[in-house]
Design goal:
alpha/beta, eight-stranded mixed beta sheet, six-stranded parallel beta sheet, 50% helix, globular
Length: 1164
């Protein structure tokens, strides 16, 4: 029997009360749940007395398998226990299933009470969507015939100027969302009535007396505070950069005004409106300042002013207009209610006549059987009490993913002391499926501790048995700062993961920040970095257990695969990395499926010219673009299909075969008499004519079969006649493509299983199926998995590379014409009185602000899911072009990406559980690196570090800073990477100590040279510039005191500086990355390493070449100082020169070390 932690034992052994178990990632919650069930059965319980609900069918099957194995083993150990053998045989029929399967079974068992047919069957989306759309059309026609004013207002707001498609989409979407609510019709009526009361409160007590008003107040003050922080930073910069007091006055006033707006108490809407709309910033005087400073100040001031102007636009309404808008929105909701209620009645009647139901139906029918709504609340029915009495224990897994309807079903089934609800609110990521994180989150928050008295208790499972210690510590470092009650409504304190896996993997989590990446190349840059990481590890690393790393140990996780996965597939193919990509586009977007559907479409409807062209150009018929053009021009007066048929006839005429003509309904009889001459040189050749003949024969034969053959048999015949399966099998990842074609065939078999429907109906079914069938591309064996955060949930991988963290959060849904409130009230756009354009009323803006918070909270939960998939090693990659210091001042709801959130959370964190690496987009690992790494890869995957053919490579770091480079480094007994762990500015270590050491004084001088303005030093002197850097927050007081001012003054009076300031181009603090042989570290050259560094300065010479300058604070002596500096730093400055030549494309003619100790330049 495995050893369990104290918290796990409590979850397993506690009886007589309902438990809410908050189980962190990798905490073994499924194991705990299964063990609790097994022990209950072994101790005398009956498996028929329990109900277990899982989130997926696979999870239900896996649990049945584990229970069967455990009970069979227990029965074998106790041969006399006949009861355990009987229990193991009952598992197949036990009530262990998904919520939909449980409800479907329950409804079928009680169909008589519902007045349903005993032959009720579950229909899929492909069958129900067309029925629902048809019912909506009928309901809308009936509604518009009534000429109801509210209906007209609804259509005016949502219908658009030319068609009603947008209105239809909105109504169908709302219908789906409403049906995730228990007693949704009553709930919607209540929501409308409540909104009427709020509108009355708005008229009597003012807008801020309503919840929407409170949300607007909170959102406005938050935005004002964000701008105040930005103005404060700008003010500090101006104080340091300005040369005259008048330059400071404008920015100081702007900062003071914003501070006053944040601190003022507002007694109503009018007061806040007046304050916001009266804000103004004066004219900025820029005379006397550097150009860069002027540009920065102007940009920041304009940004703040633009945001304030946008904020003022939302206060364009009077409180009377707000109330009138509320009444209009209520009228629109009344119209929505009448349409959706009528739609539900008609749709239900149609389904009942056909004897079908959908997934939402069975849940509502189950609720109808279990409970009824009364003025005093929801009460259990007699059937519910009888059924619940037969449940000894109710188990629900993944409770964070339930919707309100499902939550009410489980509440009715529970007796109050027999439920076991397990989940993790931090992994609630299915809001788009109407799941509510607050359901489980509030259950955990409100439940007492398990040791307290009462019928309920909560248990936290925090021990993580999946991930290495560095991964666990990194996740905690990020989420301790982000997952706070202010940001999420819940605390991370009790949810903090505890390392328990015992996995010892030495490498820290690696955060790679790519800077200066063009917007259109970000995915490609991240894919290149991911490929470099994979190849470097597969070529020479092992897992924690000593086995060799292989491609199948890696997973690349993306927030969304749509538009992103393609870049990774392209880069991985280029460098020979096998992969399997799970596409967001879905099964129907796979090339082989699109081809098959195009062929079927032509068989069903030859007039579809897009499908026809796709079929002809496909690998099956292999028309070139020129052949396609000539075929079309052969008879331009005919339809495209008829032109192909005419080419087929021409081929048969020339070869004396029988003529093939197009279908009569496509080619009228009189067309056959037309013989327009095609100019010579534009006629298709005999090979093209033959292709047309083959195509027409094939399609004609299949078309005749389609008249009487079910779709699945026709598809199989098409596969046979066209040899489509064999054709796609010849391409890359042919097995995967063949499997997809087989899946299409199985879909057709399933579709035709009830009754004969035919090809046309099947094609319509596929259109309505959408993306509910998932597709994959790439290889399936020993390959890197590319998948989304959502699809990785519940999985684990030895090494995870989380990408796309620099992408801005997708909040495009906030731009939709409506937002659904928490109570299901619809807040929507309105049209102006003239009807020329739409606008967002203030109550919708309040709903948008609230919805944005919920969306950003779910983004955080998705990120948690992604980070906690890694077992041994975690890489996090993203592009970032902003200012880290600015990010650290942002409010949680103003942070735009996961990279910004990490920068904020890890700022100042000196933990060794992670490294932060910064790479420039134009200096990423090159294809040459990949080629050489692939050549050096050891044949086979069984090789470990201990018996590696190149032992030096096992001690070669994957990455090293240029400042570490020296010959013989690998000969040292110990090696520790010293790449910076933070991309944010930190005070040096001596900031907290007393008098600085000489080395620390050198560090301070180097920091001054890094951040100072050369122009300010010339104008005001070194000391004044140091004071400016201090006031701007670029250095602290300890650093300022440690600067060697006399040595720096000598630099600015040196001949080298005179050259630098007259140069036409001067670059400072330039980061770079190079790929090099390990020979630079004393290795054999049999491995590659990633070399990174920062060039202090380089400038252009009069002849167009460049000079590279590196500042040195080494304390060397006059007599041998120059030679010592050259010996120490020749390798380092050499890499700087190579990096400059790579960046500029020009030659570096001089390399200079400026020694502050010697007070002069040392030329190499």
């Amino acid at each position: 029997m495995p050893e369990y932690t104290p918290s796990q034992l409590k979850a397993i052994e506690t009886k007589g009360k309902s438990l809410v178990v908050s189980a962190g990632a990798g905490s073994g919650k499924t194991t705990v749940l299964t063990e609790r069930i097994i022990r209950g059965i072994i101790d005398g319980g009956d498996i028929d007395d329990i109900v277990v609900v899982t989130f997926t069918k696979a999870a239900a099957a896996d649990m049945k398998e584990k229970l069967y194995t455990a009970l069979s083993s227990a029965a074998a150990e106790n041969i006399e226990s006949r009861r355990l053998s009987e229990m193991s045989l009952k598992i197949a029929s036990a009530r262990i299933s998904t919520i939909s399967s449980f409800c479907y079974r329950f409804v079928r068992e009680n169909f008589e009470q519902l007045g349903l047919s005993p032959r009720l069957r579950m229909a899929d989306d492909g069958e129900t969507k067309p029925l629902l759309a048809e019912c909506l059309t009928e309901v809308e026609e009936e509604a518009f015939e009534r000429d109801d004013g509210d209906i007209v207002l609804l259509a005016d707001s949502f219908g658009g100027d030319k068609n009603m498609n947008r209105l239809d989409e909105m109504l169908l979407e709302l219908y789906g969302k409403f049906r995730a609510t228990p007693f949704w019709k009553d709930s919607y009526i209540s929501a409308i009535e409540n909104e009427k009361l709020k509108t009355a409160d708005c008229r009597s007590g003012g807008f801020f007396a309503t919840p929407a008003g409170a949300e607007i107040m909170d959102d406005t003050l938050r935005k004002l505070n964000t701008l105040r922080i930005r103005a404060e930073k700008l003010f500090e910069f101006v104080e340091a950069a300005a040369t005259s007091e008048k330059h400071i006055v404008i920015i100081e006033k702007m900062y003071d005004d914003l501070t006053e707006l944040c601190q003022r108490k507002y007694d109503g809407y009018s007061a806040l409106k007046s304050a916001v709309t009266s804000f103004s910033a004066g004219r900025l005087y820029n005379v006397g300042m550097e150009r860069d400073a002027v540009e920065h100040i102007t940009h920041e001031k304009n940004f703040i002013t633009a945001r304030m102007n946008k904020l003022a636009e939302s206060f364009a309404f009077t409180e009377e207009q707000i109330a009138e808008d509320c009444e209009k929105v209520i009228r629109i909701n009344e119209a929505i209610k009448s349409i959706l209620f009528a739609l539900d009645e008609k749709y239900t009647a149609v389904k009942n006549r056909r004897g079908i139901c959908d997934y939402s139906d069975v849940e509502h029918l189950t609720l109808k059987l279990l409970g009824k709504r009364t003025p005093g609340g929801i009460v259990r029915t007699g059937l519910c009490r009888r059924y619940a009495a037969g449940i000894r224990e109710l188990y629900v897994d993944e409770y964070q993913d339930v919707n309100p309807l499902q939550d009410m079903i489980f509440s009715l089934l529970s007796k109050g002391n027999n439920a076991f609800f397990v989940g993790d609110v931090k992994q609630s990521v299915y809001r788009f499926r109407n799941a509510s994180a607050r359901i489980f989150g509030d259950r955990v928050k409100n439940a007492p501790d398990v040791d307290s008295e009462g019928d309920t208790g909560k248990i936290y499972l925090r021990e993580n048995f999946r991930s290495s210690e560095n991964v666990v510590n990194f996740v905690n470092a990020v989420f301790e700062k982000l997952y706070t009650p202010e940001n999420t409504g819940y605390s991370y304190e009790n949810e903090k993961l505890v390392f328990a896996s015992g996995v010892k993997y030495p490498l820290p989590a690696i955060v790679t920040c790519i800077t200066d990446a063009p917007s259109g190349k970000r995915d490609e840059c991240e894919a290149t970095v991911a490929a470099a990481q994979i190849l470097s590890l597969v070529s020479r690393a092992t897992r924690a257990d000593g086995t060799a790393l292989k491609y199948g140990d890696f997973a690349v996780l993306l927030r969304s695969a749509s538009g992103r996965s393609a870049a990774f597939e392209r880069v991985f193919r280029k460098h020979g990395i096998p992969f399997a990509a799970e596409n967001d586009n879905g099964f129907l977007e796979q090339p082989e499926i699109m081809l098959a559907v195009s062929l079927l479409t032509v068989v069903d409807d030859p007039t579809d010219e897009i499908a026809l062209a796709a079929s002809l150009r496909s690998p099956v018929f292999m028309f070139t673009a020129e052949e396609l053009r000539l075929t079309r021009l052969f008879r331009p007066e005919l339809s495209f299909y008829s032109a192909v048929s005419a080419c087929a006839n021409e081929y048969d005429r020339k070869t004396h075969h029988r003529r093939y003509t197009a279908d009569k309904k496509i080619t009228p009889p009189y067309i056959s008499g037309l013989r327009r001459k095609t100019p010579r040189g534009k006629r298709p050749d005999i090979n093209t004519l033959e292709k047309c003949s083959v195509f027409i024969r094939t399609v004609g034969h299949l078309s005749s079969l389609a008249l009487e053959m079910p779709s699945h048999k026709l598809i199989w015949r098409m596969y046979t006649d066209t040899r489509l399966v064999e054709t796609v099998s010849c391409f890359d990842h042919g097995d995967e493509k063949k499997n997809n074609l087989m899946t299409l065939y199985k879909l057709a078999v399933s579709y035709e299983s009830g009754a004969y429907r035919g090809l046309g109906a099947f094609l319509e079914y596929l259109k309505n199926l959408g993306t509910s069938v998932e597709g994959t591309s790439g290889s399936n064996e020993n390959c890197v998995r590319i998948m989304t955060f959502h699809r990785s949930k519940g999985l684990e991988f030895p090494i995870c590379i989380v990408c796309g963290t620099g992408s801005e959060f997708n909040v495009k849904d906030l731009r939709m014409p409506y937002v659904l409130g928490a109570d299901n009230f619809v807040y929507c756009d309105l049209r102006t009185a003239a009807g020329l354009c739409s606008y967002q009323p203030l109550i919708k803006l309040a709903a948008v602000a609230s919805e944005k918070k919920e969306m950003l909270r779910e983004e955080l939960r998705c990120f948690y899911v992604a980070l906690t998939r890694a077992k041994e090693q975690l890489y996090v990659t993203g592009c970032f072009n902003g200012d880290p210091d600015e990010v650290t001042r942002k409010d949680f709801f103003d942070q735009n990406s996961n990279m910004e959130r990490m920068i904020y959370a890890l700022n100042g964190n000196k933990s060794k559980c992670f490294n932060v690496d910064v790479m420039m987009a134009d200096a990423l690992p090159t294809p040459e690196y990949f080629r050489r790494a692939a050549e050096k890869r050891v044949a086979g995957e069984e090789v470990s570090w201990k018996d590696y053919d190149y032992p030096e490579a096992t001690r070669t770091p994957a990455k090293v800073a240029v400042s570490e480079l020296r010959l013989g480094l690998l000969e040292d007994d110990e090696y520790e990477r010293t790449v910076s762990r933070s991309i944010t500015l930190k005070a040096p270590d001596f900031a907290e100590s007393g008098k600085p050491t000489p080395a620390e004084m050198g560090t301070a001088s180097h920091m001054f040279m890094q951040f100072c303005s050369f122009e300010n030093v010339e104008t005001n002197g070194v000391y004044a510039e140091a004071m400016r850097l201090l006031s701007a927050g670029l250095i602290d007081e300890h650093t300022r005191k440690a600067i060697r001012y006399a040595e720096i003054e000598r630099f600015f009076g040196s001949p080298l500086y005179a050259e630098m300031k007259t140069s036409p181009m001067l670059k400072r603090e330039m980061r770079f990355t190079l790929i090099e042989d390990s020979v630079v570290l004393g290795g054999t050259g049999e491995e590659n390493i990633l070399v990174q560094g920062v060039i202090d300065c380089f400038f252009e010479n009069p002849d167009g070449t460049y000079t590279v300058v590196d500042y040195k604070t080494d304390r060397v002596r006059e007599n041998d100082g120059e030679e010592l500096l050259k010996t120490r730093h020749r390798t380092q400055i050499g890499y700087y020169c190579r990096a400059v030549e790579k960046m500029t494309g020009r030659r570096v003619s001089r390399a200079v070390l400026y020694s502050f100790a010697l007070g002069r330049a040392v030329y190499l």
